[in-house]
Amino acid sequence: MKKKLALLLAMMMLFSAGCGKEEAPEQPQQEIQTEFRLEEAGLAYTIPDTWVETENVNLIPASYVEVDGEIFAKIQYNYTPDENMDALNDPDSPIPVEELMTPIVEMLVVKAENLETAAVKEELALYNSVEELPAQENFRYYFLTDYATGIDHFSDEAKETFGILAEDLPKLKDSIETFLPDLNAVAEQAEENGKYLNFITNTLNGDPITSAVFYDYDMTVINFWASYCEEDGINELDTLQDFYQDLQKKHPNVNFVQVVIDTPGENAEKIALDAYDKAGVTFTGIMPDQYLATWIMNNLNGLPTTIFVDSKGVPRDLKIEGMQDASYYMETTETMLKSIAE
Fold first, then answer.
1. Model confidence over 263-281: pLDDT tens digits?
2. CATH architecture, domain defined by 197-341
3. Of 201, 233, 250, 326, which is the most exposed, with the fewest CB atoms less than 10 Å away?
4. Sheet (strand 35-38) strand order
């Protein structure tokens, strides 16, 4: 099946919309965008025609800009074959994201003063091919290909398709224009993105999960906790499990998840999973990615904290700070659910 190129080049990482749907081939050809100019990142480029026309192609684009980050910006295109799309779109799939898709190219933007930082070195080390693009004042640009982990996990058909796409990487590189990023555009985009709670990460069990999970429910209740709270006796997992079970019965259109903010990390994950097992937890525990971690730092005053997110991924103003009993969580949830429905 031929897949259309669905591109979501936002400042936060998100799965591209429309990939893997049967109706995609019927979309008008003129709707497929192949030329991009990203003022926030200081990059313009053109997608090769083969990336649009080749069968068994699903390209999952991801990008972000962080003005004060060690990495200023990156635009990454990940390839996943048709046979992996169901698992990639299934939040309950046990297959890790990195086994379902592989980066085919990344365009990296770094300020000169950050070239020797650990984050930049680690990012560059992910690729066997690192090519410099024209610099602009104190900004450095890189074209990264040949992901170090390879594509051995793909089927023979998928490997062949990946090779076809890779053949046109020189065309993509030749099309790239670099220029000074528009910092005003970055600020405007960051303000817009700040309205949403976005992430692409894994659960404590290693399953892929994204903020698209919000779309399946009228509202999602999110509790933020940390494994180090366990050592301090700040543990309400029994209460939250009771709340979750009651919630499933009374309001199946409302979901509940918990973010364990000091994960990933072997020790923190073990403590959290042991605590989950002891409490008989059946709700989903999430490990924050870079974007969710940034939201946590900017919006939470302490732990535990519980928030409410609507079906569009927009957090509501109300926060529950500190531990509460199950009835309080239920009463507040029902009040927020009525508020969202109005």
1. 999 999 999 999 999 999 9
2. 3-Layer(aba) Sandwich (3.40)
3. 233
4. 35-38, 43-46, 177-178
